[in-house]
Design brief:
Elements lengths: L2 H20 L4 E7 L4 E8 L9 E6 L4 E3 L8 E5 L5 E6 L5 E5 L7
Antiparallel strand pairs: 1-2, 2-5, 3-4, 3-6, 6-7
Length: about 110
């Protein structure tokens, strides 16, 4: 095989590998206040798949975990609103993380 043919083959393999990462699904998470005391978060991916079992922690601004959790079979987690300032961390692994600040959570 000539070096030119070898280069073309390597370029094709590189492009094929790159195109699969373009099709990757992105994490999505939404949190809404159910009432003054409860918040419900729903997680999933841009391809429409759910995220049961994915870690969803409620974290204080001092980085302490206020409510450790995992999404249920329906890809949701409902928790009592903390008294301290907080954010929600949806963590489906490297490159699949979403943070939602308390200020961005919809009121009931």
């Amino acid at each position: 095989m000539t070096s030119r043919a070898c280069f073309k083959r390597l370029a094709l393999l590189f492009c094929a590998g790159f195109s699969s990462s373009v099709l990757a699904h992105n994490p999505m998470c939404e949190c809404k206040a159910i009432d003054a005391e409860q918040i419900q978060c729903t997680g999933g991916f841009s391809d429409g798949s759910g995220a049961p079992g994915v870690t969803l922690d409620v974290i204080g601004y001092d980085e302490t975990i206020l409510v450790p959790g995992k999404l249920g079979a329906d890809s949701t987690l409902t928790f009592k609103k903390p008294n301290a300032e907080f954010y929600v961390l949806f963590d489906a692994g490297p490159g699949h993380v979403v943070e939602i600040d308390q200020a961005d959570i919809e009121a009931p």
